[in-house]
Amino acid sequence: MEYVLACFTVCPLRFIDAHGHRPVTDDERATAYAFHRDLAAALGLPPSPAGGLAEVARRMDTCETRHFAPTEAARALWRSTSAGLPAARLPAPLAPLASAVTATLLDEPLRTALGVRRPPAPVRALATYAPGSRRRGPRTGRRDRPGGR
């Protein structure tokens, strides 16, 4: 349970640092750790480590190193989840790339455990730069409408 809680705390921060419009601030990290600590207490988990968020991340990484391993069950899990929902969320012309695009969201230890190859460079570039294209392009949408509605 501690590992799952760590994933819900550490992974989003890492994702935002890698793909967000700006890195996570120290205040946001402190808030994430406070939420992690309070939720752990509410769930009756052992107290959070003294090293703060960095220690939570280190423990999560250590757990993955020790326990992640390729298995047929992991490969079956990947096959069942990597194409359906992601394909439905992508524009129709990109739907065939759903599995590869989804694989770009996995770090190397998880890709290894699931038996997933590193996606080709063009797919990695698409997944890295497409989410930020809205912030780099001209602003449109609700904020540009009269009255802000």
Give the helix/strand layout.
Blueprint: H1 2-19, H2 26-42, H3 52-67, H4 72-81, H5 84-89, H6 98-103, H7 108-114, H8 121-136
Helix pairs in contact: 1-2, 1-3
Write structural notes for this entry.
This protein is an all-alpha fold and 149 residues long. Helices cover 64% and strands 0% of the residues. The protein has 8 helices and no strands. The chain has helices spanning 2-19, 26-42, 52-67, 72-81, 84-89, 98-103, 108-114, 121-136. It is globular, with a radius of gyration of 18 Å. It starts with a helix and ends in a 13-residue tail after the last helix. 11% of the residues are buried. The mean pLDDT is 83.
Please sum up the structure shown.
With 149 residues, the chain is mostly helical. 64% of the residues lie in helices and 0% in strands. It has 8 helices and no strands.
